[in-house]
Write a structure and sequence with these properties.
Layout lengths: L4 H22 L4 H49 L2
Helix pairs in contact: 1-2
Length: about 80
């Protein structure tokens, strides 16, 4: 079962948005600057996490398919004995 790409990416992007906003606020940046940097960081995080989760899904699906094929080969070779 593949992972839900959008849900994971949105959750991480939102967390990163608030983390970056808080860091900018602690460092005394103006609110508009904090907002711009946080939105940019959240967007980049969303794209990176989306790509990473898609790659993980491909690897997981490949492993599941390989496992099923091996199981079928074992069953078919066991039946011919």
């Amino acid at each position: 079962m593949p992972l839900n790409t959008r849900k994971i990416a949105v959750n991480i992007a939102v967390i990163l948005f608030f983390a970056l906003s808080f860091v900018g606020w602690i460092n005394g940046l103006p609110p508009f600057t904090c907002c711009k940097r946080a939105v940019g960081g959240a967007l980049l995080a969303y794209l990176a996490v989306t790509l990473a989760v898609r790659i993980i899904n491909v690897i997981l699906m490949n492993a599941i398919i390989t496992k099923q094929l091996n199981k079928q080969r074992e069953n078919s070779s066991g039946d011919s004995d």
